[in-house]
Amino acid sequence: MTPLRLPQNPRVLVVALRRLGDVLLTTPLIRSVKGAFPQASIDALVFAGTEGILAGNPDLAEIITLPQRRRAGDALALMVRLFKRYDLALSTQTGDRPTLLAVIAGRQSLGLTEAKSAAGAIKHLVLSRSVVSERSQHRVLDILRLANLIGIPAQAEIVPPAGGASPALAPAQPYAVIHAAPMFTYKRWSAAGWRQLAAALRERGLGIAVTGAASDRAYLDELFDENAVVRLDGKLTWPDLSALIAGAAIYVGPDTAITHLAAATGAPTVALYGPTDPRLWGPWPRGGLERPWNAAGTIQRRGNVWLVQNPLPCLPCQLEGCERRLDSHSQCLDELTAAQVVTAVDQALAVCQAA
């Protein structure tokens, strides 16, 4: 690909209008642009409520937010604000809105498009350069195809929130971090599993810090004895959460943005996966994913990440649980045993002690 012609100090906009984990997975692209153009001023356009995952990112000059609920006035004001303000705008999604915003904002615009569709053909025409989204590879690699469109080297490094400190409330002794509450019910592990895991971690001499959002409080109250764990749900900034996890002896969590964050910090990370296909959405270890995740397995290891699944014949289904809705249960997670998770924990702890 012929390198794109840009000024030495270009203004660049990266559009990522999705959830927290998706936004975090755009940071390798942002790092790639900054590496190729050290003097670039790079902004990110994200949904309000997801900007915290980019806090302290050294590659960004500004984070612009857009309300998730559309209002014509907000959208119009943003378009006017962005109009041809950037030398280059990158849409990391195939959707209509991120593509439109990239075209409006950039003197040159690049983006992902859909395969074999009328909408994809139109986007191919209006974007300066485009590439069809490759749905069969990991999301990080799919986004990094935009680096190839620019004609710059891709840097497959996820950048976690920076500038925080491990909170004073964290356990004084070596500790584990448990993040038990994903956004959606169908990604939850069993309550009994979490309790047995917490007991096993205490037996191994580890303090336990439990993280989550303030809205997770009632669910976490059901899972954990407050006298046996340190509850930090709703008490941490994103940089402080990143620092807490980076200092942990081990992190355990389900398929959620926090687990992607844990993997990026370099902490030994045990990720509990159910319906989601890890080949596409598995945690990205610090230093990169040297070989792809398998679709299913009992315990897989890549770098600082141990991925645990209950490999039923239907796994990974990529569906919203067994009942096909966000508040569904998932049999593969319901039947995942604590013994299997503890085995992965022991493997991770053994590797860290040997290092």
- Structural class of the helix and strand makeup? alpha/beta
**Low-pLDDT windows of residues:** none
Number of helices: 13
What order do the helices and strands follow? Answer: EHHEEHEHEHEHEHEHEHEHEHEEHH
Mean pLDDT: 95
- Roughly how many Å is the radius of gyration? 21 Å
Write the CATH homologous superfamily of the largest domain.
Glycogen Phosphorylase B
Arrangement of strands in the largest sheet: 9-8-7-10-11-13-12
CATH topology of the largest domain: Rossmann fold
Instruction: Using the 3D structure, state the CATH architecture of the largest domain.
Output: 3-Layer(aba) Sandwich
**Main sheet record:** 7 strands, mixed
Shape: globular
N- to C-terminal distance:
42 Å
Oligomer: single chain
Number of domains: 2
Describe the protein's architecture and organization:
The chain is of the alpha/beta class and 355 residues long. It folds into 2 domains: 11-150, Glycogen Phosphorylase B (Rossmann fold, 3-Layer(aba) Sandwich); 175-354, Rossmann fold (3-Layer(aba) Sandwich), CATH 3.40.50.2000. It is 34% helix and 18% strand. The chain has helices at residues 20-24, 27-36, 72-82, 96-105, 118-126, 139-150, 191-203, 217-223, 238-246, 257-265, 278-281, 331-334, 338-354; strands at 11-16, 41-47, 62-66, 86-91, 106-113, 129-132, 175-179, 207-211, 230-231, 250-254, 269-272, 299-302, 305-308. The strands form 2 sheets. It has a 7-stranded mixed β-sheet, with helices on both faces. It has a 6-stranded parallel β-sheet with strand order 3-2-1-4-5-6, sandwiched between helices. It is globular and about 60 Å long.
